[in-house]
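Before a colleague's protein record goes any further, I have to sign it off. What it holds is a sequence and that sequence's fold in token form. Would you go through it and say whether the fold makes sense for this chain? The record follows directly below this note.
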Amino acid sequence: MIPKVIAAQYEHDFTVRITFADGTEGDVDLTDELYGEVFEPLKDPTAFKAFTVHPEFHTLCWPNGADIAPEFLYEQLQIPA
């Protein structure tokens, strides 16, 4: 089953608090993922903060067309202790 992002909130730097449909919630630090043509512009904090949760694909997406697979986000989740 593909995980579905249902909510996301900017935390700090390039970290996002993500909630999945199964109730799992935690932070994902995307600092090391912002490389390549579509992701380089997201190194600008203002551009990074412009993410939304795509209503059909249930993952993070940005106005410039960047998105990240929900499976990757789920695997990278750091669940608070």
About this structure: Residues 5-54+68-76 form one domain. The chain has one domain: 5-54+68-76. Strands lie at 5-12, 15-20, 25-29, 52-53, 60-61.
